[in-house]
Write a structure and sequence with these properties.
Length: about 60
């Protein structure tokens, strides 16, 4: 839908779908987006731990 900014949970759900489909790199990138929208550091750590790997974002 136009103008809809995905939520943390939507990014996390998409990350899990990509992980299940064997697309680990895309899953990690989606997880990083979910983590960016998390409200506390424990949630950020939990999300990123679920999808291990190095960040592939430019500038990180």
């Amino acid at each position: 839908m136009p103008g809809h900014e995905p939520t943390r949970d939507e990014y996390l759900s998409a990350a899990r779908e990509m992980a299940a489909a064997g697309r680990a790199t895309l899953a990690r990138l989606l997880a990083e987006e979910a983590a960016d929208r998390a409200t506390d550091s424990a949630d950020v750590a939990r999300i990123l731990a679920e999808f291990p790997g190095l960040s592939l974002r430019s500038g990180d």
